[in-house]
Write a structure and sequence with these properties.
Blueprint lengths: L1 H7 L32 H10 L6 E5 L2 E10 L12 E5 L2 E5 L4 E9 L46
Antiparallel strand pairs: 1-2, 2-5, 3-4, 4-5
Length: about 160
């Protein structure tokens, strides 16, 4: 806050940037926004925040991109759960295991659909799918669930 006060009072002396010490940030591309579920949950939550609104973090589900608009931290430790596995599905979101801990996906966007928060039946069990293969379509609505959103693949 002091800097803002000094700026307003014109007490700051601008200093020209040394171009030799400056670094160039490459333009972001969509491939950078693909989620690697083996990363720690806190890293992935920050990545999802950083890539919103563009290029939007995503993963693959049933061969289609699943955009991830909002997430929060889940459990700090998730014992013996492979990264990318859906741990639970509740009214709060879809909890997914990561390389360290879990995150809760709060807002998703299936391919060709508008973003939507998960409207989920908390009592619906989850099922384990084979690595890299989804087990059903993603749907939304009060009477439907995401219980078939399973083994989300991760990059190697």
């Amino acid at each position: 806050m002091q800097t803002l006060d000094d700026l307003q009072a014109e007490r700051l002396n601008p200093v020209k940037q040394n171009d030799a010490e400056a670094t160039y940030a490459e333009k972001l591309n969509k491939a950078e926004a693909e989620i690697d579920w083996s990363q720690p949950a806190d890293t992935l939550v920050r990545l999802i925040q950083a890539f919103n609104p563009w290029p939007v973090a995503f993963t693959q589900y049933d061969g289609q991109p699943l955009r991830l608009w909002r997430a929060k931290m889940g459990q700090e430790t998730v014992s013996e759960k492979p990264p990318g596995l859906v741990i639970s599905v509740t009214k709060d979101g879809v909890e997914v295991a990561t390389g360290k801990g879990s995150l809760i996906l709060e807002q998703l966007q299936p391919a060709g659909k508008k973003p939507w928060p998960p409207m989920i039946c908390p009592s619906t069990p989850t099922h384990r799918a084979e690595a890299g293969h989804g087990t059903g379509a993603i749907s939304h609505g009060r009477q439907q669930s995401l219980h078939r959103l399973e083994n989300l693949p991760h990059r190697h």
